[in-house]
Write a structure and sequence with these properties.
Elements lengths: L8 H7 L12 H7 L5 H16 L5 E5 L4 E4 L3 E5 L10 H13 L3 E3 L4 H10 L3 E6 L2 H8 L3 H12 L4 E5 L2 E5 L3 E8 L1 H7 L12 E4 L20 H19 L2 E2 L4 H22 L4 H22 L7 H26 L2 H4 L6 H9 L4 E3 H10 L4 H13 L3 E5 L2 E4 L2
Parallel strand pairs: 1-10, 3-8, 3-9, 4-5, 5-8
Antiparallel strand pairs: 1-2, 6-7, 11-13, 12-13
Length: 408
C-alpha cells in the first residue's frame, strides 16, 4: 500500500466517510456499532462491514432499477483493501453481530470454502447467505486455482442472476442468489479476485481502500471491554428484522421521485468528472453505483422499519456514502491500472485552490482549468476534483460538456 502512505491530511479527509456523515441521521444500531471504533479509518471500515452484513438480513425487500425494471435486493459485496496492521480487524465486529443472526437463521458461509462447498452452502440456505473472511491468506490459497470461477459466481450473485452447476448426479440451479459478503485483504489478494479493471466484477464489488498502519495500544491486550456486548445486541435486532421480512413475503420498496431525480443528477456530475480523470473503462463503476446507493438506502430504511419508501435523511446518507465509495473505487482502479502518477495526485492547500479559481475567466472550459492548474504546479486530476467540489458548493455551474461558468 505504499502508493497511499504519503497522502496528505487534506486528501485523507476527502476520502473519509463517517467523518462527513451526520451521526444523528444513522439508525441507532449503526451508531452503536460505530462506537466500537477508535479512529476515523476504523469507523469507515466498520461502517461498510456493518452495512454489508446487515444487507443479508433484509430478505424479500426489493427495488426496481433500469429500463426493464429489474429487481434488486439489498445485498452488498464489499472488499476492504488495506495493508497489514491497518486496523482492518475491526471489521470482525460485524461477523460477531452475524453469528447471533446465524444461530436462528443459518446464513454464514465460510470464506475458506471451495467453490463447490460455497455453492452447496448457498443452495441449502435458499440462495441467501453471508460470507465474511478477514484472513486474506485464506482467500489467496483457496482462490489460487479457482479465482476466475469465483469471480463469475460472485458477479452473477451481485446481479441476482441464476448460478448453476453440473454434477455426476445431475444439474442444479440457484435461481435468485442473494449473497452478502465482506472480505478484507491486501492488494495482491484483492487482485487475485479482480485481475483487471475491464473485469465485470470490479464495478460490482464495493472497494474501500485504507491507508497507513494502525498504532499499537496497550488497551488491545487488556480484558474485554463492556462494548463487546454491542454486536450481540445489534445481531438480535437484525434477527427480528429478518424474521419480520420473511413472514411478510416479498414487497417492493422505492426511492421517491425527487430522490431518483437527484440521484441521476448526482451521478451525471460524478460521471463526467471521473471519466475525464480515469477514462471510459470507469464508466460502468459510476453507473452501477446507482444500484449500490439504492441498496444502502434500502438497508438504512429497513433498519428503521420503513419498508415502503425512503426518507430524505436515509437517502442523503446513502448518497454521501456512495459518493465517497466512488473515490475509493477510483483509487482501486488506479492501483490495478498501475498508473503511479495518477495514483498520487498532488493536493495543494485551500489558498492554492483560490489562486487557481481566481485565475479562471467567468466562463471557462475544462482545458482552461487544467492549464491554469498546471501553471500553479497542480496535477490534472486534482484540478478536476476541485472543479467538481466547486460545482457541489454552488460556486460553479456546468453549462455544457466541458464548459463551466462561475456563479456570481
Amino acid at each position: 500500500m505504499k502508493e497511499f502512505q504519503n497522502l496528505n491530511q487534506e486528501e485523507q479527509v476527502d476520502l473519509r466517510i463517517v467523518e462527513h456523515l451526520d451521526m444523528q441521521n444513522l439508525p441507532e444500531s449503526i451508531q452503536n456499532m460505530l462506537s466500537l471504533a477508535k479512529t476515523e479509518e476504523e469507523k469507515d471500515m466498520l461502517l461498510m462491514a456493518t452495512l454489508a452484513a446487515a444487507s443479508a438480513c433484509v430478505p424479500n425487500l426489493y427495488f426496481r432499477y433500469g429500463p426493464t425494471g429489474k429487481k434488486y435486493y439489498a445485498n452488498l459485496q464489499c472488499f476492504i483493501l488495506a495493508s497489514s496492521a491497518s486496523g482492518k480487524g475491526i471489521a470482525n465486529q460485524a461477523l460477531e453481530m452475524m453469528r447471533v443472526v446465524d444461530e436462528q437463521y443459518p446464513m454464514l458461509i465460510a470464506g475458506d470454502s471451495t467453490l463447490a462447498a460455497w455453492y452447496k452452502a448457498l443452495e441449502e440456505q435458499g440462495g441467501i447467505g453471508y460470507m465474511h473472511e478477514s484472513e486474506g491468506s485464506v482467500i489467496t490459497d483457496i482462490w489460487r486455482n479457482a479465482a476466475a470461477n469465483y469471480n463469475t459466481a460472485l458477479r452473477k450473485a451481485a446481479e441476482h442472476e441464476a448460478i448453476s452447476r453440473n454434477r455426476v448426479k445431475g444439474a442444479s440451479e440457484i435461481a435468485c442468489p442473494r449473497l452478502s459478503m465482506l472480505l478484507t485483504g491486501t492488494f495482491s489478494q484483492y487482485k487475485a479476485l479482480v485481475p483487471s479493471v475491464e473485469n465485470g466484477y470490479f464495478s460490482r464489488l464495493l472497494t474501500l481502500v485504507e491507508r497507513g498502519s494502525h498504532p499499537f495500544e496497550k488497551s488491545y491486550v487488556t480484558a474485554k471491554s463492556e462494548n463487546s456486548a454491542i454486536p450481540k445486541i445489534v445481531g438480535r435486532e437484525l434477527s427480528r428484522i429478518y424474521s419480520r421480512l420473511m413472514e411478510e413475503g416479498e414487497r417492493e420498496w422505492s426511492l421517491t421521485d425527487a430522490q431518483k431525480e437527484r440521484l441521476g443528477e448526482k451521478l451525471e456530475t460524478e460521471y463526467r468528472t471521473l471519466i475525464d480523470m480515469l477514462g471510459e473503462n470507469f464508466h460502468s463503476t459510476v453507473i452501477r453505483m446507482a444500484v449500490q446507493i439504492e441498496r444502502i438506502a434500502l438497508i438504512l430504511s429497513a433498519m428503521r422499519g420503513n419498508l415502503v419508501e425512503c426518507s430524505d435523511f436515509d437517502y442523503q446518507t446513502a448518497e454521501l456514502i456512495g459518493s465517497k465509495m466512488l473515490m475509493h473505487m477510483a483509487m482501486a482502479y488506479r492501483m490495478i491500472k498501475g498508473d503511479e502518477q495518477e495514483t498520487m495526485p498532488e493536493v495543494k492547500g485551500l489558498d492554492q485552490r483560490k489562486v487557481v479559481f481566481d485565475g479562471l475567466k467567468a466562463r471557462y472550459q475544462l482545458n482552461d482549468l487544467i492549464k491554469e492548474a498546471q501553471s500553479q504546479g497542480v496535477s490534472r486530476s486534482s484540478a478536476i476534483r476541485w472543479n467538481n467540489q466547486w460545482i457541489e458548493k454552488g460556486m460553479v455551474r456546468k453549462e455544457n460538456h466541458g464548459e463551466y461558468r462561475k456563479v456570481a
